[in-house]
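Input/output pair, single chain:
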Amino acid sequence: MSTSATYALSLLQSCMERKDLVLGRKLHVFIITNNFDGVVLLQDQLIRVFASCGSLIEASLLFCNSSSPSSCTWQAIISGHVSAGESEKALELYQKMQEEGLRASKYIYTCLLKACGLINASVQGDYLHNDIIRNGSHGEVTVGNALIDMYTKCGRLEEALKVFDCLSEKDVVSWNVVIAGSSQLGNGILAINLFSKMQQTGACPDMITYLGVSKACGCMNALQNGKRVHSQVGNAGIEMDIVLGSCLVDMYGKCGSIELAQEVFNALPKRNIVSWNGLIGGYVQQEVNFDAVELLQKMKDDNLEPNFITFLCLLKACSNLGSLVQGEMLHALVLKKGLDFTEAVGNALVDMYSKCGNLVLAQRVFDELPSRNVVSWCALLSGYSENGLVLHALEIFERMQEESVKPDRVMFVCALKACSSIGNTIFGNQIYGLIVESDLEQDFMIGNALLDLYAKCGRLEEAHKIFNQLRNIDVVSCNTMIFTYLENERGFDTLEILELMQSRGMKADKVTLLSCAMACGSIGAFEQGKLIHELIVRDAFESDILVGTTLVDMYSKFGSLDEASNVFNRLANPNVVSWTALIVGYAQQGKISDALKCMKELEKRGLQPDGKIYVTLFMACSHACHVDEGFQHFENMINHGIVPTVEHVNCLSELLSRSGCLKEAEKILQSMPASGDVAGWVSLLTACKAYGDRQLGTASFDQAVKV
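Output:
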């Protein structure tokens, strides 16, 4: 090779390092002019220069005319296509390279694996993996790292972990790739555990490691782990740059610690849009919505303009607040910045206007969207449904189908909730048919929505069938069935669901235990009731006023008044319902004096008794023939502003009838604002028979027939 050609070669090398495309083109002219274009080394180097500078057209033309490109040239043209986002073309070039019998270098493999990850080409990735094993390159740590990255980007975490475990040598990149991949695929716990394992092996985390594990902590709401990671960053002497700082702000926000997020944010020497978005997003996630909206002005004071992520967060804040004025101001800013055609922002605007109750504007934004996806339709449907226009919501669902938009699980759940709110099982059944067609009938969110629909519509058998078909049930599924059985007075079936939950290792929540305690009371299941009480105590639910009151009621129905009283006495602030449960228990067991003591104590505490208490007291006085006391309670009831109901009238009439005051009982039934019903007259008729008053008995019979 001549001196001029050698000089040109050195200049091309310098050109490639500096990515100087202009100089590369001048050298290309020089090479042609001096008839050096036949020199293979110069030709190869030119291809590499154009490929590295991003001029794939020029690189490809030279490559096609090259008689025998070297391995380095193949490497340059393949990596150039990958860098330019032309992954499919890069994989085609690899196929040609194989056809020519050339062996790929580890660098080519890493480029091709990156290409597979970028386009989710899982099959081609497997093919490459097999080639790598055949060529003996699987032991190379850089190739192994590229395989892990490819598999995680293709959503195949199990295969990524297998490659990771088989690496004989792991560097910090190996750990970073598997930690980041686990976090991105939603397995934050695994990412955190891998970070701990990394430290145990003596590997030294770098900034990329801390970024990956911080994101995992945020996704898993693992605040304590996040704090430890933050502490280790400081101990490792890693500089808190804007990228890591923004990541920590985001992590603390997602973990619910706005104070720490703000603290890290304030300590940043410089902030960018990512830092601000992380802070605003944290405020919105923790529903500190008003403060989140105020941060927009502070961000502008920091000479930063909002981007589409900022608007997504702030529109969500306005949705939560129901603040139409703030929402319209944000909409104006969105229009000013030309972001209204962004699909995500458009959907957020539809959702915001719907949540703020302005369905006219929600519909207008929806109609003007240049493209609509299932999220757009779902936002509009939910808006109509939540604002009580359920039939409009179902029309939206039908229109979506007409436009050939395929519903997803969220859309199906929204549509089923709409059907549930108006008891429309006909439309619900049609939706169920579409769910089956979409192969989503086993989805637990959809299953729960179907259960709720059939339960609220009183379709117990359909609900039972859906429940039994679900492979994966959760607490919500079980609670829906428990409540359905309870409403239909099938207490034993209710308790069977609790047994099923326990057999599957599922932890009952407050709603579960509350409902099961009610079921035990209704069927007199004393032993099961005691076991449920133990579970309630174990989970520290007994102090809850609703749970405690239910237990008082349950033990009262069992006749276990000592237990009922013990639970009642442990309640910090018993309400009227709590007192009623205890008073009813005493009255039903004939302990009239205890019931009356409770009534006096209730009034002494300034609580307003309800009508149910007086029904119980009248019945108790009736059984004890305490006429004067019964009338005293009746006067108290009137003084408390409680209008007598038919039930009150009947109880008072029965009190008089049992005591032999038959005429007074008749007068009460005839003169009360709520005249007695058939039960009152039948009660008087029975008393007339007992006391031998045929004339009044005949009159009572006539009244009972008339009523």
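The mean pLDDT is 86. The first helix runs from residue 3 to 18.
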